[in-house]
Specification:
Blueprint: H1 2-23, H2 25-58, H3 61-64, E1 68-69, E2 74-75, H4 78-109, H5 112-125, H6 130-151, H7 163-187, H8 191-199, H9 204-214, H10 216-232, H11 235-240, H12 259-270, H13 276-304
């Protein structure tokens, strides 16, 4: 079915590319917009069709129950959804302060001759293969976090591979994405606005706060870009999250699983079971709908100006 979808989508893509290059830019861009929407719709439909056997058998229970027992062909993805939400929450709580700090440091504090160099270095970290991050998290970050957490009073991190480890690793991975968007917005603050801020007697710290409020749309855009990246990351998270398929947990210091890592770790053996492949597609469908809902909220907030 995936091959059929690729063939079907190739035709409108070629038409849009031809319109963009040889006919009219506006019509080409419109066709590309239609192509993107159609692609998302067809992929969602494909996930629904592939997940239909498990949905027809178990109904919404496959989304609302935490179980993963291939021997009994009993599947539920609630534990994976909880892991996705928790790791993303940890990642975003750490990412946004770091991204804001990076953007302000490069645009406001560093000398002009060094801004391009440090900006390029930050952007370069986004191109590092995720498996490299995963190996670093596996052998360095996980054990280090376990020692630090257990050093604190009441620290109960029994394993170096937990939802918290995955969240911290995700934060490091996605910070360059959010920082790039915020940095771009910060650099576009009009010079008259900046001069007016200082003319009013604002300190440098106050000026930074005013500028950040001025580019709040960019900050929100960076937030949702980083959130989408965090929710969809697979390889690095699968290496450090702990691989707890069965037990539902909301304790970030315990091993868990995310939807994307569940699919990656279980798909190689899924064909041996009747309902595992549909269950994994059900997880993919849930992640897709979750992502679409988040982006819809982001678009609504930006358009309404309620930020």
């Amino acid at each position: 079915m995936l091959g059929f979808l690729l063939v079907v989508l190739l035709i409108p893509y070629l038409i849009a590319a031809y319109g963009l290059l040889f006919v009219k830019l506006r019509w080409g861009l419109r066709l590309f917009g239609v192509f993107i929407v159609a692609t998302i719709g067809l992929l969602t439909a494909m996930f629904l069709v592939e997940a239909y056997p498990i949905i027809a058998r178990d109904g919404v229970a496959v989304f609302l129950e935490a179980r993963w027992d291939p021997v009994r062909e009993s599947y539920g993805v609630l534990q994976a959804l909880a892991g996705t939400v928790l790791t993303s929450a940890v990642a975003m709580a750490l990412t946004m302060p770091m991204a804001l700090g990076v953007a302000v440091t490069i645009n406001e504090i560093l000398p002009a001759r060094l801004r391009g160099i440090f900006g390029s270095l930050v952007d370069l970290t986004a191109t590092t293969p995720t498996v490299i991050y995963g190996l670093w998290g596996l052998f360095v970050l996980g054990p280090t976090l376990q020692r630090l957490i257990n050093y604190l009073p009441g620290g109960m991190m029994t394993s170096p591979y937990t939802l918290f480890t995955a969240g911290v690793l995700l934060a490091i991975m996605i910070t360059p994405y959010a920082a790039a968007v915020i940095r771009e917005g910060y650099a576009l603050v009009p010079k008259p606005v900046e001069e007016a801020i200082y003319a009013m007697g604002a300190t440098r710290f106050e000026a930074v706060l005013i500028k950040l409020r001025y580019i709040r749309n960019y900050i929100l855009g960076g937030f949702f870009l980083a959130l989408g990246r965090a929710m969809g990351e697979t390889v690095a998270v699968a290496m450090v999250v702990g691989g707890n398929f069965v037990r539902f947990t909301t304790n970030i210091f315990e091993s868990g699983i995310t939807i994307s890592s569940l699919i990656a770790l279980q798909f190689p053996n899924a064909a041996s079971y009747q309902y595992m492949v549909p269950a994994l597609f059900a997880g993919a469908l849930l992640l897709t709908l979750f992502g679409l809902a988040i982006n819809a909220v982001a678009i609504y907030i930006i358009q309404r100006g309620q930020i």
